[in-house]
Amino acid sequence: MRTRPTAILAAGFCALIAAPSVSAQQSPPTTEAGASQLALVNLPAKSSEKLTVTSPAFANGADIPFQNTRYRGNVFPGLSWSAGPAGTKSYIVIMQDGDALVAGAPILHWTMLDIPASTTKLDAAMSAPPSGAQYGPNIRGPNQPYAGPHTPAGPKHRYHFQLFALDSSIPPAGAASYATLIAAVKDHVLASGELVGLGQIDPDSASRAH
Predict the structure, then answer these.
(1) What would the pLDDT profile of 15-25 be if each residue is shown by its tens digit?
(2) Is 122 exposed, middle or buried (0-12, 13-18, 19+ CB in 10 A)?
(3) Whose CB has fewer CB within 10 Å in the chain, the N or C terminal residue?
(4) 159 and 198 Cβ atoms separated by less than 8 Å
(5) How many whole angstroms separate alpha carbon 38 and alpha carbon 49?
(6) Alpha-carbon torsion 124, 126, 129, 130, what sign?
């Protein structure tokens, strides 16, 4: 007895429905490898006041769009935050991948220093820091622009956009490295907050890197 073509097509369709998606990426692991070493943990604020951090590109805990990753364009997603408390002289942003460690520390993707106290927004697709601000270090060295996620295969990664309101500015020597930056910021944090986005591998890309 010959099998009808329609039966073969139906069986194949059912198999596709039953099979898991090969491009779907798992949620981040329950334990975040670098959680205890994130800047937000190691730079406690002097008060309990929190900064609310948002982005027009994604909600807290949601996927970061591919155009905001190094897979497709590396376009800065934009950030906004609530104003810091009285005495705020500047803001600093520190972006880290808490699910990947290099030399025992979370991967440092991007920092921006000396954001004026009057500024509470960084525009999407910005090409340079606002007046008075400067790029800080990342894993590649000092004075580095935004470096979005480039998540490898496996579970999704958590990317922490951490915002700090400071009672001071950062001295030039503080921008040399992450270590000098943390030392310069310590004991100067008035309030802090963060936005967490999830990164994943681009299913259309064959490259594999953080």
Answers:
(1) 333 333 334 68
(2) buried
(3) N
(4) yes
(5) 19
(6) negative
